[in-house]
Design goal:
Elements: E1 4-8, E2 14-18, H1 20-41, E3 47-50, H2 51-54, E4 60-63, H3 67-81, H4 96-115, H5 119-124, H6 126-162, H7 172-176, H8 182-207
Antiparallel strand pairs: 1-2, 3-4
Helix pairs in contact: 3-4, 3-8, 4-6, 6-8
Length: 212
């Protein structure tokens, strides 16, 4: 069986003839090379998510983020990092009402960003599903309980205190520090703030995950 035939016809035209099965093998090899190269292009390192570090659970799982996941993580990271929630709270100078406003805005924006992720991506990629799951747990387990327990009560008290004549010359920081349960409130805010910062760090690691 000839692998390659080179011959001239009666008109002195040069012809090449490659064996059919050899041709098939070459095509298969070329396709395999293309597939391997494409996999290497999108071959990202695995990242371990520790829910305990975020304060929303005790599970650890590894995700291998794809490009879509990185885009999602980046958008969420921007929302965290460009608001007060992405920084340590300065309890001597920060105004609690402004922090609550920032938390509330973050809650709504994060929820909207998650809703915009196509369900086809969530069903197709386990990594996308995990990022969405962690983000929802952060809202429902990390943020919502504190807002439910403290925000409305503090806002009502604070608005009432602002209306008093003797508080006109006081700073917002001076007024809020006289809240009857101020120490308890601050301790709870510290816990939420730590969760948000850990979540921010997780998002940063995901969208900056290098290729192998």
């Amino acid at each position: 069986m000839d692998i390659l035939r080179i011959f001239f016809d009666e008109r002195c035209n040069l012809h090449f003839s490659l064996n059919f099965w050899i041709t098939i093998i070459i095509i298969v090899i070329l396709i395999a090379i293309i597939i391997i190269k494409r996999k290497k292009i999108f071959n990202w390192e695995r990242y371990e998510v520790d829910e305990a570090e975020i304060g929303i659970g005790t599970q650890k799982f590894k995700i291998k983020p794809n490009y879509q996941d990185m885009q999602i993580a980046y958008k969420l990271w921007v929302e965290v990092s460009t608001r007060k929630i992405g920084l340590d709270i300065d309890y001597k100078n920060d105004v609690i009402i402004e922090i609550y406003n920032s938390w509330h805005e973050f809650f709504n924006i994060t929820r909207d960003l998650i809703k915009d992720i196509p369900v086809s991506k969530i069903r197709k990629y386990e990594s996308t599903k995990k990022i969405v799951s962690v983000s929802i747990d952060l809202l429902n387990i990390g943020l919502r309980p504190h807002l439910t327990s403290w925000q409305a009560k503090f806002r009502k008290w604070y608005d009432h205190e602002l209306s008093k004549d003797e508080n006109v010359v006081k700073t917002p920081q001076d007024i809020q520090s006289s809240y009857p349960k101020y120490d308890d409130l601050i301790n709870e805010m510290k816990k939420v703030n730590q969760k948000l910062m850990s979540y921010r760090d997780m998002l940063y690691t995901i969208y900056t995950t290098p290729k192998k």
